[in-house]
């Protein structure tokens, strides 16, 4: 199935322990929030799940397999990591077209995802002039290109205006309602409250809570 499984994950950078023995499972059909303060190890965990960084020990799998073997980026897993880092002189359309081409995805899909995230009107504008909110939308469009069953979004709400925040809530919920696995990090409980069904809370690289959103609100 389309579970994300993290087992006894440890990641050290020199003397810094970014992830200290983390285990959890993210299931399809709901929005799972990945909550914790800045520096808690959320991005590191996501990067390891995506095969962009190596664990010191432990494992991370998607659909039962490590990302590095046999998992197709974009088609099986779409990800948004560090939207602010999307730069370059290319237009939004060409940025997505290049990504689509290198993954054998047709150009028609580029138009579809631009429409989905509300960027059709600025598709011909250069990405370097984009606000952070527009970059978030563009990053989400990229993550959607391959119509993947699993989506991992790192702090997608950062930099969005109130209208964008309202949009992303409904959008993430609709992706989960379609049966997808939706894993979304945030350092703000308030951002997840009306969005996530389930939450994995981390602090200093350790699991603090793994519960329904209702359970978390009740406990606090
Ligand atoms: P979060 O996403 O929850 O803000 P991170 O995973 O970015 O947390 O960071 C966890 C810890 O690991 C922090 O102390 C951070 O400084 C450290 N860290 C993350 N990436 C690196 C790296 N490439 N080199 C050294 N330390 C890192
Ligand atoms: P480059 O510009 O060097 O081709 P990209 O970042 O465009 O680098 O893409 C490199 C590879 O990373 C892509 O072929 C794709 O497999 C993967 N990738 C890029 N963006 C995403 C994403 N949003 N979700 C999942 N995989 C991605």
Structural description of this entry:
Helix 2 crosses helix 3 and helix 3 crosses helix 4. This protein starts with a strand and ends with a helix. Strand 1 and strand 2 form a beta hairpin. The longest helix has 16 residues. It has 220 residues and is of the alpha/beta class. The chain is built from seven helices and nine strands; from the N terminus they run βββαββαααβαβαββα. The site of one adenosine-5'-diphosphate (ADP) has 10 residues, from strand 5 and helix 4.
Give the tags:
220 residues, alpha/beta, 7 helices, ATP-binding, nucleotide-binding, ABC transporter domain-containing protein, single chain
Order of helices and strands: EEEHEEHHHEHEHEEH
Strand order of the largest sheet: 5-6-7-3-8-9
Distance between the termini: 33 Å
Q: β content, as a range?
A: 25-35%
Quaternary form: single chain
Shape: globular
Largest sheet: 6 strands, mixed
Using the CA coordinates, give the radius of gyration.
17 Å
Which blocks of ≥5 consecutive residues have pLDDT under 50? Answer: none
GO molecular function, one term: ATP hydrolysis activity
Keywords: ATP-binding, Nucleotide-binding, Transport
Protein name: ABC transporter domain-containing protein
Family: Belongs to the ABC transporter superfamily.
Topology:
Elements: E1 4-13, E2 16-26, E3 30-35, H1 42-49, E4 57-62, E5 77-80, H2 92-101, H3 107-116, H4 132-144, E6 150-154, H5 162-177, E7 181-186, H6 189-192, E8 198-203, E9 206-212, H7 213-219
Parallel strand pairs: 3-7, 3-8, 5-6, 6-7
Antiparallel strand pairs: 1-2, 1-4, 8-9
Helix pairs in contact: 2-3, 3-4
The structure holds adenosine-5'-diphosphate (2 copies).
Keywords: ATP-binding, Nucleotide-binding, Transport
GO molecular function: ATP binding; ATP hydrolysis activity
Domain ABC transporter: 4-220
């Amino acid at each position: 199935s389309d579970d994300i499984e993290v087992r006894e994950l440890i990641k050290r950078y020199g003397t810094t322990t970014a992830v200290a023995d983390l285990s959890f499972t993210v299931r399809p059909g709901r929005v799972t929030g990945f909550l914790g303060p800045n520096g808690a190890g959320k991005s590191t965990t996501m990067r390891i799940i995506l095969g962009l960084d190596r664990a010191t020990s432990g494992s991370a799998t998607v659909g039962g397999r490590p990302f590095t073997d046999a998992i197709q980026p974009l088609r099986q897993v779409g990800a948004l990591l560090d939207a602010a880092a999307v730069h370059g002189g290319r237009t939004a359309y060409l940025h997505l077209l290049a990504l689509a081409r290198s993954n054998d995805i047709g150009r028609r899909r580029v138009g579809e995802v631009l429409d989905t995230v509300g960027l059709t009107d600025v598709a011909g504008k250069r990405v370097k002039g984009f606000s952070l909110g527009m970059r978030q939308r563009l990053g989400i469009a990229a993550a959607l290109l391959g119509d993947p069953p699993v989506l991992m979004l790192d702090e997608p709400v950062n930099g969005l205006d109130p209208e964008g925040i309202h949009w992303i809530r409904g959008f993430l919920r609709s992706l989960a309602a379609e049966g997808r696995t939706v894993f979304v990090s945030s350092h703000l409980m308030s951002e997840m409250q009306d969005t996530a069904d389930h939450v994995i809370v981390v602090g200093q690289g350790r699991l603090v809570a793994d519960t329904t959103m209702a359970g978390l609100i009740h406990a606090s």
